[in-house]
Amino acid sequence: MSVLIVGLPLLAAIVCMLVRKKLWLSVTSVSSSLLLVLMVGSLLLNVDPAVSPAVYPMSGWGAPLGIELSVDGLSLIMLFVTSLVVLLLSVYSTYYFNVSEQHIRFWPLWWFLIAGLNVAFIARDAFNIYVALEMIGLAAVALVAVAKKRAALVAALRYAMVGLVGSLCYLLGIALLYRLYGTLDLSMLANLAEPSLSTSVALCLISLGLLLKTALFPFHFWLPPAHASAPAPVSAALSALVVKASFYLLLRFWLEVLAPSVSAGAANVVGVLGACAIIWGSLCAYRATRLKLVVAYSTVAQLGYLFLVFPIALAGDPELGFRSGAVAAVAYFVIAHALAKSAMFLAAGNILASTGNDDIRQFSGFASRQPIAVFTIAIAGISLIGLPPSGGFIAKWLLLTAAVESQQWWWLVVMLVGGLLTALYLFRILGIAFEQNQPLAKGSNFLVLPKPMVFCGLALALLAIAGGFNAEWVIQLIDQDMSSLHGMGVAS
Amino acid sequence: MSIHNLLPLLIILSALVPAVCIFAIAEQRVRLHKVVNYGGGLICIALICSLLVGVLSGTTFETRLPLLPGMDLVLHADALSLLFVSLSGLLWLVTTIYAVGYLKNTQHRSRFFGFFCLCVAATLGIALAGNLITFLIFYEFLTLATYPLVVHKGDPASLRAGRIYLTYTLAGGAVLLAGVVWLKVIAGPLDFTATGILSSLPHLNTDHLKIIFGLIIGGLGVKAALVPLHGWLPVAMAAPAPVSALLHAVAVVKAGAFGIIRVVYDVYGIEFARDLGLTAILGVFAAFTIVYGSLIAIRQNDIKKRLAYSTVSQVSYIALGTAIAGPIATIGGMVHLVHQGLMKITLFFCAGNLAETLGIHKVSELDGVGRRMPITMSAFTIAALGMIGLPPIAGFVSKWYLGTGAVEVGAYWVLGVLATSSLLNALYFLPIIYAAWFKPAAQSWPEQKQKLETHWMLLLPPAVTALLAIAAGVLSSGPVSPLSWVELIAAREYGLDWLQTGHQSALSIAYSDWAILTPLLFAVGLLIPAFRGTCIRLAPLAALPALVIGLTVADVMDSFTQPMLLLASLLWLVAGLYARDYLGEDKHLTRYTLCFLLCMSGSFGLTLSQDLFSFITYFTLMSFAAYGLVVHTQTSEALAAGKTYIQWVIAGELILFAAMVGLAIATGTDNMLEMPMSEQPIWVSWFFVVGFGIKSGLFTLHLWLPRAHPVAPVPASALLSGLMVKAGLLGWMRFLPLGQTTLNDPGMLLVALGLAGAFVGAVIGLFQKNPKTLLAYSTISQMGIIALGIGVGLSEPSLWPALSGALVLYAVHHGFAKTALFLSVGVKPLVARGVTPRWFAWIIVLVPALAMAGLPFTSGALAKSVLKDSLVAIEWLVVLLPVTAIGTSLLMLRFADLLLLQGNAAAPPARNGGINSRLVACLAITLLVLAMPLMSSHLISGNSDLRELAARGIDLKSIWSGIWPALTACAVYVCCRIRVLITRGKCYETI
Question: I need a labelling partner for B361 at 20 to 30 A (CA). Which of B73, B178, B590, B916 fits?
Fold first, then answer.
């Protein structure tokens, strides 16, 4: 099954490359994304706590040389979110690109990107991960450039450079690891790795590469232009999924593979950078004048929350158990942010598509002119701020609880202030949208968008809200992970 | 999952589902909108009713949805949540009707009603939340759902309001979140439990608990508008009226207040919180907010802003009730949740009506609006008076319980806070009421197009809520009132089976209550245009049932009830008759009659009432309705006098309120028949002496009297001076421990002040040019003698049995005579017009004047001799009393001189018409004065000591003692005025 998870997107990419009719492209994409959801869903339902994580050696080539895939709770969550977002984004994209030329370029790259993401989530080998990172990076850069506008091209170029530097750092890091331990299989590395200077250097290089790709403050400089100038579904995917992939890998390396080598100081540094990202990203979002730029800076800020997990999870004795709470929190953050942020980018895309402009100052009266788009932004915003009832609230609750339990109350303050700052920039937009309805200026064309485009965003936002109810299954999945990991640690 | 587990969820869904539907329905389908709106509201109320029945029968309703491990989403219906749920459900429906009317033909209705329903769903969720986390979720949800309503208009003001609202509430929410997370980590799932959960958990760091309390209350305080976190509330006034009504009365501020109640009672536990010293701090904040909010409210000219600051102040009563930390105060605080809701929503509805119909936004534009929009302003008046805390409106019940609760735990400072607040409330509400009803309209308003003053949908909601506010007060001790429900809750919070409170009697309609009800029914009839004329014509007859009861029912309560009731009913009858002619063509006859009837009802009520609650209700009713009589003429003099009058009345009310609270607590009952008055603390006696002293014009507390009594129309003056001052006497006799305990200090003070009043009143009266002012000073003088009697009763309890009868006799005599004198003032113009012969005027002036002076065979002689006999043990008083008679005689001489001999008013042409009711009334009262000595045996039949005194024959000595003061007075008067009299005599000769 897990082979198919990688195989299906690759197959779809090849089909899309061969087919050139718009209708066929759409049918292929929507049906395969639906299939992907069903597959991941069935994996999720059939997850067996006894054999987790499930390991599948591809074509019989096992570790240490072959391609081994493994699915555990965290990766399942990532896969599920990815497939869900991809489904809605694919539906949206079939309506979004109205020029057939764009369709032809978009779809193969899109499926290539998804294949890369899925590989990154289930690969058990550091080099395979490198390959996945390159797949993701190249596809993403090309997707940004699909729009063929000047700003998009510049941003894409910068994005490409950063991606390459990041990949290079990562490659150096794993080369060093291979030199030290003679293997790149992650579970083997986890057993072999011991704290040493060389391991630390390798960890530093790997982290640097992944941090660049995750756009943690102060490496976030490339993100806003790239995310803001890409086509709407691409922006959504970049913000919701792509940056999460590199964060996911970072989490794997820090908490699982090279956990003993991570020092408390390093964790705190990353935490502080995360806090800076929250504050700085929110302030930039507040000052931005274009809607998509606001949303992009909001991504910078939201990514900051993710990094708070490290100081909280790594504080004190790992047996005390805030680790599982913190990881659950961060998993939930990823889910909530992916859904909310993609919803928001789609809504912004809709506004841009219908008015040809996303300058915030012209939003006056939008609450009545495009009520659903504004509503989408509003309820996605609820999740981003972390207000109940929403997935964002659960995530924040879990992280706050973990912070209190680990007796690091200062993160509490950071998170609460971050929430208020988020509210600040979101309600600035909404306030303008609620202004008295001004009559449309003569000559300004106002496109009426197809219904599915409008409702895709709304559906994503509602899913983000729905994440606020019955969050137990996510936490159970993470708990299983953590208990098995813990058992492993004891065994070694 | 059975229905028991689903019901709380269904209630929330009954608001949530309409919200979703409304968003989906197109803007144009107005009818479908309405159906969904009303349908949701009705279903919600039906569900709440079934929940109420279930909870009463002891079923537990709980919906539990898993949220996180060890953390469920719990909806739980207990008594406290039902209190808030019922309020929200009911007011939701009412507000929906209002909003449909208010937003007719405007844009974005589906957005508005959608968020409106969401708001209600959130409020219902807050009410039903079964643990702190669920509460938090709905609390934040409410913040979000309200925002679109606040900015609904989309103008810069509302956008600014929305921004400020969010800044405050989101910051508050963040602080609250921090506190809740922390508490959850150290104390577990935080399910609300009746006596608190934290006290039973060992090993909690109390310092942490205190900080957490600060965080949580800080967060909740934003919505509850505790100063200094209240800044958003006045700004949020930019929202449409239904939203303001909802924000202020039901949803937002109440969510905060309700949260405070939940946290203090059900999380910390009230006793634990008190032991930690947390309630004291909360109390200080609440008290400060109460006073501060009112102070700022006075300065506001914008109506809605004034109401907003009033909310700031009023909502903190709830927090104050919590902070006092006693069971009775708990009742007061919690019941105010409902009461304030009912009253405040009425006020905002009315403000909305004024703005919508007439475009009035400022207090200064309200002049005379009562005539254009009588129903709206009636509702406003009721609610505003309730806010001030006047009985029997709901607000009084809250204040009463807060007050008694505070005394119960010894927090006397709360009485001061309550008094200050009521005073300030009066300061900012009474001018509005005054301007609306008494000032002439300064501008012309848009024509009244339809039959009603505005659309019925705008009119019905305030009328309903105002009536509910009255009902919640009047029926507060009934079985289904908010109060009885709250008593149940409070008992549970303190882990008791039953709470003994000072207030249990109900207002049931007994035979004697018809005396009170008849004037009220007439008053209601006045409001209906079809009956108005009849009611005005028959108004005097409203006193008949009281007369019948006074004649037939012996010993209604004690020996003095019956004479006082007889006096009152006769005087109202006579004065009413008199007014029919005197005010026959007055422009504001309806208003006058309304005040007249209300006053009458209050006067009978306070005579007949048997418990504290009804006594103070009727006392207040009478005092406030009399204001309308005082300022009736609306001359600048009358207005100034009215202002003085109302200031003194309010001060008196406050003092009496405090005294009655103390009395209720000290004696443990409020039934005056069973009440052991001798157990009252000394401060309560002092308060009674002063409080009723104001009413009876006790010297030094009399300043309002000579200004207020003369400016009213003649019949009203007569009533004020003849009857209403006697309410003070009645109060003294009812509430002071007369004949039971020796209270030397207040007693001697009363004697001293009474004597001083008797002399000084007479002296000042002599120099008055206006005969009515002269009579007012004479009243001060006469009431001084009565006060003296009370003072003797206090310091010499053994004299009281005889003295009480003598005082009643004296009061009845004074009542008849003074009324007759006042009424005679109005006869002078009739003489000038030639309607009546001069000799008739002479008779009706001289008969009561001679009676006042105490000449033999008059009622005055009888009253004075009886009083003297009962005081015989105190020799120096027996010597002094006749001296006061000289003063009285001088006054009467002067009065007769002024009225009969001096100047003639310009004579307008005579009105033709058969029997002049004014003259009939004068004749009747004169006959009553004459007949009074004959009735006296009947009047004092209940008093055996006095019967002996009165039965003594009349001998020469007593005749002489009646004559010599009058003769002296004649001599003095002639000497002083000899030159004036001579010149006048020459004038007559030349004529």
Answer: B590
- Which of A 448-477 lie inside 8 A of B, CB atoms? 469-472, 475-476
Nearest to B702 by CA among B794, B784, B638, B630: B784
Count of A-B CB contacts under 8 Å: 92
A427/B147 Cβ within 8 A: yes
- Closest residue in B to A435 (Cα–Cα): B154
Test mutation, A434, A472, A476, chain B, max B CBs within 10 A:
A434
Q: Return the bridge partners of B64, or none.
A: B74
pLDDT, tens digit, for every residue of B756-767? 999 999 999 988
Mutate to test the interface with B, among A387, A409, A454 (most CBs of B within 10 A): A387
Amino acid at B991: I
In DSSP notation, B166-190 reads HHHHHHHHHHHHHHHHHHHHHH-S-
ipTM of the complex model: 0.88
In this predicted structure, the answer to whether residue B907 has a pLDDT above a threshold of 70 is: no
Average pLDDT over residues A198-225: 92
Label residues A416-438 b or e (16+ Cβ within 10 Å = b): bbbbbbbbbbbbbbbbbbbbeee
- Domain residue extents for chain B: 511-904+914-990
Q: pTM for this one? A: 0.82
Condensed to tens digits (0 to 9), the pLDDT of residues B554-595 reads 555 567 788 888 889 999 999 988 888 888 777 788 888 889
Alpha-carbon gap, residue A486 to B570, rounded angstroms: 96
Query: B177 to chain A, minimum CA–CA distance in Å?
Result: 8
CA-to-CA dists, residue A447 to A67, A354, A369, angstroms? 49, 4, 11
Task: Give the nearest chain B residue to A371 (CA atoms).
Answer: B111
Q: Which residue is associated with the tokens 């608190």?
A: B196
Angle subtended at Cα B847 by Cα B842 and Cα B849, rounded to the nearest 5 degrees: 95
Alpha-carbon distance values, B485 to B79, B263, B345, B494, B537 (Å): 8, 20, 21, 15, 44
Strand partners, B191: B131
| Interacting residues of B73 by C-beta distance below 8 A, sequence separation 6+ | A469, B64, B65, B66, B67, B133, B134, B137
Measured between beta carbons, the chain A residues lying within 8 angstroms of B159 are 431, 434-435
Handedness of CA B417, B422, B426, B428 (dihedral sign): positive
